[in-house]
Amino acid sequence: MASQPDYYATLSVPRSANADEIRKAYRRLARKCHPDLNPGDKAAEERFKKVQEAYDILSDPKKKQMYDQFGFYSESGAPGGAAGARPGPGMGFGGFDFSDFVPPAAGGRASAGHAGAGGNFRDLFSQFFGGREREEQPRPERGGDLEYALNIDFWQAIRGTQVRLNVNRHDGCAACGGAGADTGAAALCPQCNGSGNVNQMVGAMKFSIGCPRCGGSGRLKNTCPSCHGDGRQARTESVEVRIPPGAQLGSRLRVAGKGNAGAMGAPAGDLYITVRVEPHAFFRRDGDDIEIQLPVTVSEAALGAKIEVPTIDGRALLKIPQGTQTGQKFRLREKGVENTRKGARGDQIVEVVIQAPKANDERVREILRELARLNPEDPRADIWTKV
Ligand SMILES: [Zn+2]
Ligand SMILES: [Zn+2]
Question: Which residue in 10, 110, 116, 350 has its CB near the most CB atoms, within 10 A?
Answer without folding.
Answer: 350
